[in-house]
Amino acid sequence: MVLALQIILVLASVIMTVFVLLHKGKGGGLSSLFGGGVQSNLSGSTVVEKNLDRYTIVTAVIWVACIVALNLLGTYGS
Question: At the top level of its lineage, which domain of life is listed (predicted)?
Fold first, then answer.
């Protein structure tokens, strides 16, 4: 159980890092490298950006849940 949570935590960390880097920032971020910068400047908030926000939030919730579960398992045993 602990090993599975640790694997999920690592995967969620990597995925969340990629999602955060794909967000459009003041300078455009990495999203402008993949062609997202020009389109998002023309149309404001796109469906892709909204979905990216949702995916980032879901990944962050999974990440926090894994940390809490690992802490509880470490404290009270499995």
Answer: Bacteria
